[in-house]
Amino acid sequence: MRKYNIAVVGATGMVGSKFLEVLTEKQLPVENYYLFASAKSAGKVINFMGKDHTVIELTDENINALKGKVDIALFSAGGKTSERFAPVFASIGTVVIDNSAQWRMDPKVPLVVPEVNPQDITWNNGIIANPNCSTIQAMVLLKPLYDAFGLKRVIYSTYQAVSGAGVAGYNDLLEGLKAFVNGEKYETKKFPYQIANNCLPHIDVFMDNGYTKEEMKMVNETKKILGDDKIKVTATCVRVPVLNSHSESINVEFNKPVTKEAILKVLENAPGLKIVDDVANNVYPMPINSTGSDITLVGRIRIDDTVDSGANFWVCADNIRKGAASNAVQIAEYMINNNMIK
Amino acid sequence: MRKYNIAVVGATGMVGSKFLEVLTEKQLPVENYYLFASAKSAGKVINFMGKDHTVIELTDENINALKGKVDIALFSAGGKTSERFAPVFASIGTVVIDNSAQWRMDPKVPLVVPEVNPQDITWNNGIIANPNCSTIQAMVLLKPLYDAFGLKRVIYSTYQAVSGAGVAGYNDLLEGLKAFVNGEKYETKKFPYQIANNCLPHIDVFMDNGYTKEEMKMVNETKKILGDDKIKVTATCVRVPVLNSHSESINVEFNKPVTKEAILKVLENAPGLKIVDDVANNVYPMPINSTGSDITLVGRIRIDDTVDSGANFWVCADNIRKGAASNAVQIAEYMINNNMIK
Would you call B220 an interface residue with chain A, using a CB distance cutoff of 8 Å? Predict the structure, then answer.
């Protein structure tokens, strides 16, 4: 059986260390792992899969030294690093699966959720983009609904966890909460205002149209992943004081008539999705329940009779796993299982 | 100058004690205050406005003993207590301003936000209902927009604070956070699941249609307050780990064309509303900013081009003040200032 070589770039960050965790769980047929990070973390030794790995500094020289020896590189090192180094990996024959926003809307780069559009992997040119965390979980829900009923309009309101803002964001909530319950002050390092006991309607930077980049990611990536520019999408993205797992309130208008029964029937067999919807027994998705899982939870499914055919949904998913690391590893797994690596 | 007599019913609860705080600030022309509560709190002495008040037990006998002596009764003692005792106060000539959901949809009871529909006060039959907290702040925003552009459809997604669930809900978060940061367990008393580090898409009880009662309050109260059954309204209500002030993501479809400039012009002069919308300088509403104020903050105002005429809004307001106590006291103040008390 063929064995593969995988590089992890940004191995010491929030998503990077989750890459290692998910790779350990998956036990893909891998010969060698190469862990890359910036100069700051280079030389550090990480014990991974029972072996000590010295973190390699991300430089042209170090990448080129591995020419022909790395099949897949899982990137989570920010947009700038990806812009600079993903093409270098691609040039040595590596398929880059990149978690940053850098390549997502590039028409030459497929944007993939394995349960939704694995067919797009085939036309990659050495770089495959992992969608935004908040988009991924919405796609797992919306793809089967799109296929069954068509999507006319989607309105997202998100309840996003601080882990999406990396280690610094995570610590801003954790340290902020400690200070809060002790009546002390805490100066946030990542967020512009306190996130403990607060909601910030501000994720990523503001654009000229007044929307945040995060909101526009949800709008544009939804259309690209579903391959349909005619779907109308709008979004309001909000950071809430939750450590991990994003939640979303999604209002959907369909092209064809729906009933709750028809929706449930479609979603019952949807890959990567679990229906958690028994309100008589207080059963509904919550971020504490999706954390640690690669499954997107959907519940609070209600027909919306304010349009001819519509429904409201509530979805929760682990933004660091399914929203980032696991989705990328699933792409790698899909490529390995389907002999898509040259 | 005429002086009035005011009773506060449920004086020892979360909203009840806020009634006392707001009344202290307002300094209405009041002769006597009567503080009522259940047997459990009766006899307790509360120092209020520099005077000791012994809490009176809420019984028919004690109410009837004050026949003709109480002009206004501010109620916040739950639906059942209001159902039982509001009519008793009304029968002795008192105008009841009730904060529970008990009378809100009764066609003989006006449902009033003073900035929005004060004219409805005139047709009261002894009971005036205070709307649901999450509805009130939406109305302060939507009324001027309704007048200017007409409302076709409104989609609410809420981010509601635990203070809306009373003292027990408030403590569930506060104690839950303390336990959380110390790595300890905490059993919630009010909420079915932990609210610290979590979101609960569950406020009030579930109805047969799958919506919660809270969601249906927002739907039905919006139409009643604006006096227009043709407006289409749907809602998803979510409890977030914030102690105080509700936030709402509101998507609106208008009947007439809008621009951001036209919306801003309309909202600039809206009573009880403040525009907090300068994203270039990270200025937007947050629950930590609306807490302690009676003003509803609106920001993140964005044209939504997925419909012919639409926009997205983000509003924050203090749910215990404007969403409950202050709105009720403002109704009392309006009646006093306009000589509407017999």
Answer: no
